[in-house]
Amino acid sequence: MDQVNELKQKGNSALQEGRYEEAIKHYTEAIALDTSNHVLYSNRSAAYAKAGKYEQALKDAEKTVSLKPDWGKGYSRMGSALAYLGRLHASVEAYETGLKYDPDNPQLQSGLAEVKAQLLMANNPFNRPDLFVKLASDPRTKNLLQDPQYLKLLDTLRNSPEATPQMLTDKRVLTTLAVLIGMDTDVEMRSSENEQSESPKPKQEPPKPQKKEEEDLSTPKKQAQHEKQLGNEAYKQKKFELALEHYNKAVELDPTEIIYLLNIAAVYFEQKEYEKCISQCEMAIEVGRENRADFKLIAKAFTRIGHAYKKMGNWKQAKIYYEKSMSEHRTPEIKTLLSDIDKIIKEEERKAYIDPEKAEEEKELGNQKYKEGDYPAAIKHYSEAIKRNPDDPKYYSNRAACYTKLAAFDLGLKDCEKCLEIDPKFIKGWIRKGKILQGMQQQGKALTAYQKALELDPSNSEALEGYRSCAVSFSSNPEEVKKRAMADPEVQSILRDPAMRLILEQMQRDPRALQDHLKNKDVAAKLQKLLESGLIAIQ
Which of 157, 151, 106, 148 is nearest to 127 (CA)? Predict the structure, then answer.
């Protein structure tokens, strides 16, 4: 292994100094000694890409992924190689797959952003009619519009789209494009495992060697980045105390960087130290504001505070901080979280409002107003009773009676159905339903409702009276009943069914056969429909 590491270091040095063929040679020798080392294939992929050998770079990247399928860097190498080969859609797929395993990987984020930018170049978004309105309304580009050089750059982008790919190295161009296509530009550049990422560039532009920052610890900022990387590795292994040590060291070295404070908050969140997490996020926001951090990082801090309050069951505070996050940077994820929190808060408020004693008080007030004939006022009190105790069927029944008096039959019917959903044995609910259906001229359905009431109490006078009135209505004008029933498509379908015709004929000859047929649910439902239509009557 010592020999492998020595060859690897030689390859790294050669790669940094632009001696790509030599780097490839050292990595190849190391691979011969350790064929399962995914980092060696990744490094050689980088060297091949620098040397312009993109097919070989892709082959090594694919080998890297096969050896370590959950390692984001392998997909970064693959995406880069595919981009160099002009296979942009496949490149996007590679980057997106990598982000599933490592969603915070800046190399994958930046690579994906550049490839998507190249795909969109054909449509030249810089020619959109609302270009300046769009740029002026986004804080990332608002101030740039004051720069004459930037305006000149925009003019070139609008009128010479063929020059755009060569200009993608300009951060202003990437930022402008991100604003125009709604892309996130929150990319934190970093390197890992003795490697430097390559952003995909057009094939005709030769790649340039880059120095790796991770091995250069000559400044406090670079030392802080190194500590952060060590903290990330510990965090992924759930070694949270060790991660905290590294993140805190990073803060000591660079107290102006919001990311280190957010990482500490993430550790506290995993440890269920929610108060500490909130405090750390508040500190991050303060530091971020002072040092003009990206607004998306500020939004991230607010979101994490919201998550912490949510875990603590403090829904209202969680909502406040999700809203603050949205004010910084709107995302579909936070919008969904806000919607979910709103539902929880409303449900909690509903439960807190329930008070059976106050419900009874409102019912008595409603009864008094009903007796006085003030039905709208009675509805108001019954509605309040329902809010105070939504599981008591009598409040819905009482309100249904008010709606009936006001001829609001559809609302009354809805209340009756809710009443009977709560308690199917609530006789008054069936009687109310029968009366409303009578008012709606649906005699057959009303008859069924009265029958349900009589099944529960055969001696109930209201149910008996309702049933008789429906029966009289059917018998008084049988032709009208038949005409109305035959206009119903469902009734027509039942009567065209040969099996149902045989059953109806059998019932005429032998009424006792009904009991056997009612055991079949489908037949029973069809007979019920015919009964409600008034075409048949059961004695």
Answer: 157
Q: Give residue 211's pLDDT.
A: 44
- Report d(CA 213, CA 215) in Å as an integer: 6
Residue type, 84: Y
Render the burial of 180-190: b for 16+ CB within 10 Å, e for the rest.
beeeebebeeb
Range 129-133, long-range pairs (CB < 8 A, 24+ positions): 131/158, 131/180
Handedness of CA 456, 460, 462, 463 (dihedral sign): positive
Distance CA 247, CA 312 (A): 25
Identify residue 495 by its one-letter amino acid code: L
What is the distance in angstroms between the CA of the first residue and the CA of the last residue of the chain? 96
Amino acid occupying residue 20: Y
Contact 293, 262 (CB under 8 A): no
Say what the pLDDT of residue 203 is: 43
Q: Are 527 and 533 in contact (CB under 8 A)?
A: no
pLDDT score for 218: 57
pLDDT of residue 192: 35
Sequence-ordered list of residues with C-beta below 8 angstroms from that of 433, at least 6 positions apart, any chain: 400, 413, 416, 417, 420, 446, 449
- Tokens 């990598």 belong to which residue? 98
pLDDT given at position 537:
63
- Please report, as a single letter, which amino acid is at residue 136: A
Q: 3-state class of 143 per DSSP?
A: helix
pLDDT score at 45: 93
pLDDT the model gives residue 69: 92
Low-confidence ranges of the chain (pLDDT < 50): 122, 186-215
Identify the helix (H) or strand (E) that includes residue 500. Answer: helix 498-509
DSSP character at residue 123: G
Mean pLDDT of the chain: 83
pLDDT tens, position by position, 254-303: 888 999 999 999 999 999 999 999 999 999 999 888 888 888 899 999 99
| 431's tokens | 């009687």
pLDDT of residue 499: 86
- Both tokens of 494, joined, read 């039942």
Of the candidates 537, 538, 409, the one whose C-alpha atom is nearest the C-alpha of residue 481 is: 537
Q: What is the DSSP letter of 255?
A: T
pLDDT at 231: 92
- Give me the amino acid identity at 315: W
Residue environment code for 445-481, b if the CB has 16+ CB neighbours within 10 A, otherwise e: bbbbbbbbbbeeeeebebbeebbebbeebbeeeeeeb
Q: CA nearest 433: which of 406, 463, 460, 457?
A: 463
Q: What is the distance between the alpha carbons of residues 472 and 92, in angstroms, rounded to a whole number?
A: 75
pLDDT score recorded for residue 495? 84
With CA atoms as reference, report the closest residue to 475 among 506, 500, 444: 444
